[in-house]
Model the fold of this input.
Amino acid sequence: MRLVIRLGMGLGMLSSVVPASSASAAEPQRSVVVLPTATEGEVSQVAIDRIDESLRRGLAAGGVSTTDGGEGAPCSDAPCLTARATAAGTDTAVQLRLVLEGRDYRMELLATDREGKLLSAAAECAICGFDEAATVVGDEATRLAEKLSAGPKPARLTVGTTPEGATVYLDGEAVGTSPLSFDVPPGEHELRLEKDGHNDKQASYVAVSGVKETLSFELAATIVPPSPKKRIGGWIAVGAGLLPFAGGVALLAIDDRPVPGRCDDPVNVDGAGVCRYQFTTMPVGAALLAVGSASIAAGTVWLIVDRQRRKAAREQAFVVPAGLGLAGRF
Done:
């Protein structure tokens, strides 16, 4: 006996299958309708019945339940299988095509996956009896059923931000910091990105089974709105500093100068012409000058900061917030 097995999915090859036991416990068991076996060659009814029985056992071993497909023309494509499954109220339909040439069997199983794509499994059994052919069909049916029972593959999402280092949230749960790549269950999700000193970014994302996608976001720096209180406080500080500043300058200007009226009497003037009564206002003048300068400086800083914030707020009002920078699917 010579046995050749081919597995196919459309034009490509079927990759490793996921055993039904590894599927989520919450995943409901799939149901398939087994269509009547399509035959070519002189295949006896006993052989058809034995192979059909093995087909059903193999499907059950792979984790799917079966129901009889009744009468109807054989299916050879996905739309036909989908229509027959819908009519039977099941998830998919399974069609076995059996060709007998002498003692050589050729067998092909057809079904559709969860997305309606055609799955196929083919095998050849040279110089076989129908019991051996039935065993081969049962094994192929189990492999096909395991593929049908496997849940959808997750999507792979890569998130990048400018600047980097933003915390990435998926449906409210933190998953890491950007740049970041992670698996996402198929379906619609909400993304949120947070970074200190920058505005949060939110976006909706639809994950497609098995698809790799890259999303890039621009995070705008946080702009603190101008405060009228700080502006008023700045002007008050500048005004309050002017009086001691002017007083300090005046006191420093008259320091060591003769006191008017007291130095007119010659008795108060020594032989060098120096009056014994002079102003000693430097300490007080210096103190007033320092206080006034500090108040003016603080008020000026507040006014400059307030002006810059108002300018930034005006500029930001004319900028359309950036959404997705780059997006790609692979």
